[in-house]
C-alpha cells in the first residue's frame, strides 16, 4: 500500500510539473528536461571556481575583493558560495517566472571588467563597485518594467538578430578550443595550434571531442553529458595509472581572462570548500554594497554604472537571442516572444548578485548545450538551479569536472549553432555585411556586446551607402550612436 501511495505521489508531482511548464505544448518530457538541465550545469559549473579566482584580490599584487584579516583562499571560498547563490536565485526566477531553459550566473568577461578595470584601473573601492552593480540591476528592473529593454531589443536590425546565433557558435568554439589547449596563444599569429600530439590535456580533449561528436551524430540521448563524464573519467584513469601528468587537469589549474581585459595569467587557486574547515559564512561580503554608497564620487560612479550597464545589457541581449534561435523560440521577425520575462529574471539576478557580493549576473550562452539536448521549458532551468544549490556542500566535487572536459560540450554546440547561418540573406549586401561583422567580431574580440555593436553600427551605414533607407528608423541611428559613444568612453577614459 505504501509503495502504491509513493508511486501515485510521484506521478502527481510529474503531472504537476508537466502542467506548470506545459511539457505537451513544447513537445518535451520530464526526463528530457532533467537531462538538459544536467547538461547545462555540467557545462557552466566552472563558474563556481573561475568567478572567485577572478574577483578575489591579492593586496599589492592583483585587484579585486580584498578582505583584511582573511587569506585569499578564504575569500575565494566566500565568493564561491556567493557565486552559487546568485546563480541559483537568477536561474530560479528564470525557471519559475519566465519558464525558459536559460541558466544564469555571474558573467565571465564582465567579472574581469569589475576586478581589473573598475577596481584596478579606476581605483574604485570594491564595495562601491558592488554598489554600482546593484544600481545597474535596479535600473534593469525599472527599464524592463516599463518595456524599454524590450523596445531596444526590437530595434536590433534583422541581419544582426539572425547572425547572433552563429556568432555565439563561433565564440563558444574558440572558448572551448582554448580551454582544451587545441588553440593557444601565438606571438606571431595571435592564435595557433596547440601541441595536440604531446600535450596530455590536448590529447584527452581531442579524444573526448570526437567521442562526443560520434555519439551526437548517432543521435545518442545524453551524448554531451556522456562526452563530459567519459572524458573526465578517462583523465582520472590515466592520472591514477601514472601514464601522464595533467596538472590534476582540474578546473582549478587556471582561470581564463578574456583577451580584451588585462591578462593576469594562470594563478594557483585554493579549491573552495576543499579544506576541512570550509568557509560558508559570506557576511563579510554580502551587503557590502551598502557601505559602498558612502564612498561614491558622482562622476566616476556614473561612469562605472554606464560601463557595466552597457556591457551587461548587450551580453544578455545576445545570449537570449542566440540561445532562443537555437531553441527555435524566435518569431517571424526574429524576436523572442514574451522577452520581458527573461529580461526581468536577468535584472533581478543582477540586483541580487550585487547585494550578495558579486559582479553582474547574466544569461549564459552555455544554456545552448541544454537546449540542444532538448530542453525547452523552465524545468531545465529549475534543474540547473537545484544543482547549483546542491553544489554548496559539494564544491570540490563540482570542481572535479575538468575545464577541458566541460568545454567539449561548448565546442560541440558551437559547431551545431553554425546551422543558424542559413537564415541570413547572403545575397543582400546590406544584410551580409552587418551579419558578417556581428559573427566575426564576437569571437575575435571575445565579446558578445562588441559583435552586436559592429552589426548595429554598420547596418545604417551600408543602407545609406546603397540608397536603401526606407527600412531605417531613428532608433537604428540612436543605437549606433550609443555604441560609438560607449567606445569613445571605453577607449578614452578607461584605457
Automatic annotation (TrEMBL):
Protein origin, superkingdom: Archaea
Broad class of where this protein is predominantly found: membrane
InterPro entries named in the record: Azg-like, NCS2
Bilayer topology annotation: Multi-pass membrane protein
Gene Ontology CC terms: endomembrane system; plasma membrane
Single GO molecular function: purine nucleobase transmembrane transporter activity
Keyword Magnesium: no
Protein name (Swiss-Prot/TrEMBL): NCS2 family permease
Cellular compartment(s): Endomembrane system
Keywords: Membrane, Transmembrane, Transmembrane helix, Transport
Family as reported in the entry's similarity comment: Belongs to the nucleobase:cation symporter-2 (NCS2) (TC 2.A.40) family. Azg-like subfamily.
Keyword Protein biosynthesis assigned: no
Pfam families: Xan_ur_permease
Amino acid at each position: 500500500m505504501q509503495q502504491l501511495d509513493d508511486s501515485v505521489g510521484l506521478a502527481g508531482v510529474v503531472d504537476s510539473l508537466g502542467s506548470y511548464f506545459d511539457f505537451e505544448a513544447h513537445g518535451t518530457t520530464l526526463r528530457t528536461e532533467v537531462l538538459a538541465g544536467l547538461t547545462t550545469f555540467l557545462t557552466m559549473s566552472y563558474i563556481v571556481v573561475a568567478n572567485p579566482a577572478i574577483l578575489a584580490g591579492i593586496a599589492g599584487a592583483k585587484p579585486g575583493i580584498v578582505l583584511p584579516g582573511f587569506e585569499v583562499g578564504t575569500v575565494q571560498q566566500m565568493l564561491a558560495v556567493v557565486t552559487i547563490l546568485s546563480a541559483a536565485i537568477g536561474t530560479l526566477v528564470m525557471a519559475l517566472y519566465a519558464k525558459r531553459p536559460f541558466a544564469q550566473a555571474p558573467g565571465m568577461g564582465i567579472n574581469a571588467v569589475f576586478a581589473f578595470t573598475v577596481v584596478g584601473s579606476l581605483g574604485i573601492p570594491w564595495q562601491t563597485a558592488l554598489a554600482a552593480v546593484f544600481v545597474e540591476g535596479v535600473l534593469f528592473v525599472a527599464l524592463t518594467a516599463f518595456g524599454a529593454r524590450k523596445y531596444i531589443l526590437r530595434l536590433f536590425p534583422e541581419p544582426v538578430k539572425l547572425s547572433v546565433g552563429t556568432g555565439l557558435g563561433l565564440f563558444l568554439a574558440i572558448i572551448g578550443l582554448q580551454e582544451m589547449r587545441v588553440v593557444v596563444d601565438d606571438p606571431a599569429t595571435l592564435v595557433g595550434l596547440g601541441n595536440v600530439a604531446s600535450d596530455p590535456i590536448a590529447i584527452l580533449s581531442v579524444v573526448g571531442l570526437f567521442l562526443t561528436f560520434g555519439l551526437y551524430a548517432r543521435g545518442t540521448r545524453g551524448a554531451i553529458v556522456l562526452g563530459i563524464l567519459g572524458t573526465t573519467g578517462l583523465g582520472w584513469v590515466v592520472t591514477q595509472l601514472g601514464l601522464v601528468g595533467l596538472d590534476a587537469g582540474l578546473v582549478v589549474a587556471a582561470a581564463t581572462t578574456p583577451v580584451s581585459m588585462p591578462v593576469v595569467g594562470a594563478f594557483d587557486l585554493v579549491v573552495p570548500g576543499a579544506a576541512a574547515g570550509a568557509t560558508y559564512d559570506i557576511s563579510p561580503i554580502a551587503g557590502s554594497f551598502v557601505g559602498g554608497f558612502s564612498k561614491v564620487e558622482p562622476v566616476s560612479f556614473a561612469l562605472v554604472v554606464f560601463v557595466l550597464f552597457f556591457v551587461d545589457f548587450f551580453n544578455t541581449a545576445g545570449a537570449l537571442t542566440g540561445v532562443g534561435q537555437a531553441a527555435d523560440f524566435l518569431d517571424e521577425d526574429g524576436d523572442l516572444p514574451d522577452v520581458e520575462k527573461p529580461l526581468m529574471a536577468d535584472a533581478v539576478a543582477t540586483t541580487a548578485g550585487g547585494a550578495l557580493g558579486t559582479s553582474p549576473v547574466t544569461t549564459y550562452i552555455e544554456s545552448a548545450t541544454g537546449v540542444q539536448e532538448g530542453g525547452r521549458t523552465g524545468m531545465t532551468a529549475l534543474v540547473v538551479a537545484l544543482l547549483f544549490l546542491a553544489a554548496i556542500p559539494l564544491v570540490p566535487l563540482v570542481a572535479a569536472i575538468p575545464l577541458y572536459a566541460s568545454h567539449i560540450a561548448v565546442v560541440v554546440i558551437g559547431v551545431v549553432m553554425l546551422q543558424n547561418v542559413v537564415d541570413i540573406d547572403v545575397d543582400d549586401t546590406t544584410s551580409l555585411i552587418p551579419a558578417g561583422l556581428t559573427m566575426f567580431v564576437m569571437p575575435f574580440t571575445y565579446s558578445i556586446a562588441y559583435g552586436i555593436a559592429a552589426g548595429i553600427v554598420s547596418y545604417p551605414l551600408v543602407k545609406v551607402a546603397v540608397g536603401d533607407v526606407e527600412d531605417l528608423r531613428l532608433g537604428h541611428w540612436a543605437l549606433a550612436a550609443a555604441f560609438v559613444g560607449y567606445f569613445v568612453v571605453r577607449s578614452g577614459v578607461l584605457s
